[in-house]
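step=encode ok
step=design start
structure_in=
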């Protein structure tokens, strides 16, 4: 028995929608403005850090990773919020869904296009960050060698090792991966909201509120539990809030990375799994709403 054409080209249709979405997003002026601003901020961080080399590398990494987190999150929201409303306005969604394209395939393709855009943007920013860090590391190494002068080789090697350890560690790449997963989560959540929102502005404004709720959730939960009895109603309410409004503070590992604290593998895996879970969860919610949406 031969399979139906609808299933035969499942991935081909998703790939086509993904490529088309990526092409449309790269034409947006806001994409270049956000990316350029992030690149300038990361590049200028080398001039913002002028202290001892330990403090200098900490400030540099703090500024760069913070910039990458903020602007990938912003790009995830802005890029995703406009997709469905724009397709409805241009009536291209009717053309796409009139073909043998399932609504889940449409959503998967759109989300994959945004995630690919976020990955490319983060790669560009990461490359610039590494270049800036390497240039500053080499400058500090040369200054250290000049200051050491005729110091014993063991002492000089120890000083150079301290500089290299302050500049680079494996946590940087783990932190960048978590930043990407956080952006993926926000993109999927924005996609879900856009399936029932009427305008791009409404989706964006609502996501701004959710973003702040996500970052303040842990603090608010702690204060609530300290001032209220932790009964089953309270726990159920907090669980409901935690389910639909992810605790974005869990993805904030920048402070540990900046000071050189090693991120446990278990913590990284747990955070990554949480990001993947919420991305899939919001995608399923988006599909459940979009499946019933009258077009």
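sequence_out=
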């Amino acid at each position: 028995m031969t399979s139906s054409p609808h299933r035969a080209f499942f991935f081909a249709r998703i790939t086509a929608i993904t490529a088309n979405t990526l092409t449309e997003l790269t034409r947006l002026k806001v994409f270049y403005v956000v990316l350029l601003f992030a690149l300038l901020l990361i590049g200028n961080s080398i001039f913002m850090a002028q202290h001892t080399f330990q403090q200098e590398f900490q400030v540099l990494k703090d500024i760069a990773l913070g910039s990458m987190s903020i602007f990938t999150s912003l790009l995830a929201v802005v890029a995703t919020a406009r997709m469905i409303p724009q397709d409805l306005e241009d009536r291209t969604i009717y053309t796409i869904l009139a073909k043998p394209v399932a609504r889940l395939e449409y959503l998967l393709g759109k989300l994959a296009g945004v995630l690919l855009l976020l990955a490319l943007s983060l790669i560009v920013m990461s490359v610039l960050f590494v270049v800036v860090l390497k240039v500053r590391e080499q400058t500090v190494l040369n200054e250290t060698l000049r200051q050491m002068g005729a110091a014993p080789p063991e002492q000089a090697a120890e000083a150079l090792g301290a500089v290299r350890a302050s500049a680079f560690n494996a946590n940087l790449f783990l932190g960048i991966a978590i930043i990407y997963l956080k952006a993926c989560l926000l993109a999927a959540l924005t996609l879900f909201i856009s399936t029932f929102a009427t305008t791009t502005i409404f989706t964006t404004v609502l996501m701004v509120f959710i973003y702040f709720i996500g970052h303040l959730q842990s603090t608010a939960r702690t204060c609530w539990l300290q001032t209220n009895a932790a009964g089953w109603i309270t726990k159920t309410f907090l669980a409901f809030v935690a389910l639909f409004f992810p605790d974005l503070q869990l993805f904030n590992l920048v402070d540990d990375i900046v000071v050189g604290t090693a991120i446990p593998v278990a913590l990284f895996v747990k955070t990554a799994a949480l990001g993947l879970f919420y991305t899939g969860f919001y995608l399923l919610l988006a599909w459940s709403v979009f499946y019933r949406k009258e077009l």
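step=design ok
step=annotate ok -> Residues 103-148 form the longest helix (46 residues).
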